[in-house]
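hiii so um. not sure if this is the right channel but i have a protein structure encoded as tokens and i wanna go backwards to a sequence. like what aa goes where. can anyone help
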């Protein structure tokens, strides 16, 4: 996806950090050279060459948050609620399928919209920090990088 503004860049980075893939070999990258963010999967070995980075492109891999980091975010939100609501939310994290259970409990106690706003704000902050850590910004209508990106390696055809 071609990036056209800093807000769009932040939004895409936040989504990439949040995204949970079924496959271990799937992740987002940002190609500074082509000014776009793209998804790489284990099935890209047969992709059209124009879709993948070329040799010499400056590419950064965007690693999604680990499950425990997302759980910590949910715990932080829970701890900002009333004592009764916090207890219910924290208990939801003890069950199987706790992501869904947490949202069900948040809905039942009337804080689901607050959770979504909290989650979005946290991921936006994480996206800002990611950009800062990588030396990436959106200046003069383009994505810039003050440091060289990581090496992109196409998935093998094994």
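sure thing!! here u go:
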């Amino acid at each position: 996806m071609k990036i056209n503004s800093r807000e769009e860049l932040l939004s895409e980075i936040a989504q990439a950090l949040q995204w949970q893939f079924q496959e271990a070999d799937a992740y987002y990258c940002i190609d500074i050279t082509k000014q776009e963010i793209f998804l790489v999967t284990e099935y890209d070995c047969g992709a059209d060459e124009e879709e993948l980075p070329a040799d010499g492109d400056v590419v950064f891999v965007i690693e999604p948050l680990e499950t425990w980091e997302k759980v910590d975010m949910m715990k932080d939100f829970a701890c900002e609620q009333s004592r009764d609501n916090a207890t219910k939310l924290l208990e939801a994290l003890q069950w199987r399928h706790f992501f869904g259970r947490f949202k069900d409990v948040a809905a039942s106690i009337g804080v689901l919209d607050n959770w979504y706003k909290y989650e979005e704000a946290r991921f936006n902050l994480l996206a800002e920090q990611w950009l800062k850590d990588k030396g990436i910004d959106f200046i003069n209508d383009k994505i810039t990088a003050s440091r060289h990106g990581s090496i992109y390696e196409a998935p093998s055809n094994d």
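oh and The two ends are 28 Å apart (CA to CA).
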